[in-house]
Design brief:
This is NAD(P)/FAD-dependent oxidoreductase. Pfam families: HI0933_like, HI0933_like_1st. The chain has 392 residues and is an alpha+beta fold. It has 13 helices and 21 strands. Helices cover 31% and strands 26% of the residues. The strands form five sheets. Strands 1, 2, 7, 8, 9, 10 and 20 form a seven-stranded mixed sheet that branches. Strands 17-16-13-14-15-12-18 form a seven-stranded antiparallel sheet. α1 packs parallel to α5, α1 packs parallel to α13 and α11 crosses α12. The two termini are 20 Å apart. Bound molecules: dihydroflavine-adenine dinucleotide (FDA).
């Protein structure tokens, strides 16, 4: 039976980072993946350019049952450390917006960088390989693979969450946790488009394809980014962000011209030309079809000259305080990440090791730490992978 110091399940972002770091410490490492290629999610991320980190990454950009859990890993391996690695590999990058760093070229450069680092340090990569069984042995674990049986001192579970099953997501990491008695916080799709019921959709379907820079809030949480009307409901960065906070039955509030007093805008326009229709004025600031839809919804369609101040306030509310209850989300099929996962109370924050199972580690998305949209989730994968790499 082949023996390793470390077996890592999942050759994604977190797993590969952990493999590199463990190998730097002269640990013998086998990293396996049931997919035919490593880092498939990296490859499709950021529209093919991989938003690999965020210059503003800090613990406040993450959701978790224990918001303090991620502090240690994020401060020991920071976005600056990952940027330095990218620069050492001469990968050109740029900031797109809000601190989000993307490759100038292709996400494949990040995969090649990690695979190159693993190869250079003797990490063994086994693709198209699945795990059939994991059991404890006197000095570690015995892992039965589709290709044979191996033994190791440490098992690192890095097989991601449930999002996008088509890309190889399985939820296998939660099964391993269950099996070893490690608690799992209920999971749900996050960073996901929200959907409307059939009646609302009938009304809003003609808006599909229109986008606005909106402020979207749910309870006390708010995000100001682009929002897109789709054939199923709403999407775009602002909606994906708020989806991580939204729960069934919650109302979301949308300001489509945040920071603009629409009543005042209409009064100013009336002073200039009272014979304009309300949608004509709104169409100077919103997509034309959306301006029409707002006017129709308020039922106010005469000239500005005939409008009362109260009616102008009604239009203001329709634009900047649109309240709607999404019926649901598009689910794991399109969710970028999985909220919830391996309970942080069950893990040591400095090493990512399960407190009750020495030698068993959980890193990356499988853990109950979920980042905002914008490179934060990869930063968590790098940071948690790095700290586990120092401990395995
Ligand atoms: P990841 O999912 O990367 O890796 C898990 C690996 O385990 C996979 O290779 C999988 O095949 C393997 N695996 C699963 N089950 C297995 C099993 N049973 N046996 C063996 N192997 C198994 N984040 C970000 O910060 N910036 C971005 O630009 C994007 N963009 C983006 C786009 C899209 C479309 C999605 C779906 C997601 C993103 N993300 C993102 C999120 C980001 O991809 C995600 O947070 C990280 O990939 C998580 O890294 P992990 O290594 O934990 O899991």
């Amino acid at each position: 039976m082949q023996s390793y110091d470390v077996v890592i399940i999942g050759a994604g972002a977190a797993g590969m980072m952990c493999a590199v770091e463990a190998a730097k410490r002269a640990r013998s490492v086998l990293i396996l993946d049931h997919a035919a290629m490593p880092g498939e999610k990296i490859r499709i991320s950021g529209g093919g350019r991989c938003n690999f980190t965020n210059t503003h990454a800090s613990p406040k950009n993450f959701l978790s049952g224990n918001p303090h859990f991620c502090i240690s890993a994020l401060s020991r391996y920071t976005q600056r450390d990952f940027i330095a690695l990218v620069e050492r590999h001469r990968i050109a990058y740029h900031e797109k917006t809000l601190g989000q760093l993307f490759c100038d070229g292709s996400a494949r450069q990040i995969i090649d960088m990690l695979v190159g680092e693993m190869q250079g340090r003797g990490v063994q990569l086994a693709l198209s390989t699945s795990v059939e069984d994991i059991s404890r042995s006197a000095d570690g674990f015995v892992v039965t693979l589709s290709t044979g049986t191996v033994s190791c001192q440490s098992v690192v579970v890095a097989c991601g969450g449930k999002s996008i099953p088509k890309m190889g997501a399985t939820g296998f990491g939660y099964e391993i946790a269950d099996r070893f008695g490690v608690a799992v916080v209920e999971t749900r799709p996050a960073l996901v488009p929200l959907t409307f019921d059939a009646r609302t959709l009938e009304r809003l379907a003609p808006l599909a394809g229109n986008a606005v820079d909106a402020e979207v809030s749910c309870g006390k949480t708010r995000f100001s980014e682009a929002m897109l009307f789709t054939h199923r409901g709403v999407s775009g960065p602002a909606i994906l962000q708020i989806s991580s906070y939204w729960r069934e039955g919650d109302e979301i509030r949308i300001a489509m011209l945040p920071g603009t007093d629409v009543a005042e805008l209409l009064r100013d326009a009336r002073r200039l030309n009272g014979r304009q229709a309300v949608q004509t004025v709104l169409a100077n600031h919103l997509p034309k079809r959306l301006a029409q839809a707002v006017a129709e919804r308020t039922g106010i369609n005469g000239n500005l000259a005939d409008m009362t101040d109260a009616q102008m306030k009604t239009v203001d509310a329709a634009v900047n305080d649109w309240r709607i209850k999404p019926a649901g989300s598009e689910g794991y099929r399109t969710a970028e990440v999985t909220l919830g996962g391996v309970d942080t109370n069950a893990l040591d924050q400095k090493t990512m090791q399960a407190k009750s199972v020495p030698g068993l580690f959980f890193i990356g998305e499988v853990v109950d730490v979920t980042g905002w949209l914008g490179g934060y989730n990869f930063q968590w994968a790098w940071s948690s992978g790095w700290v586990a790499g120092q401990a395995v």
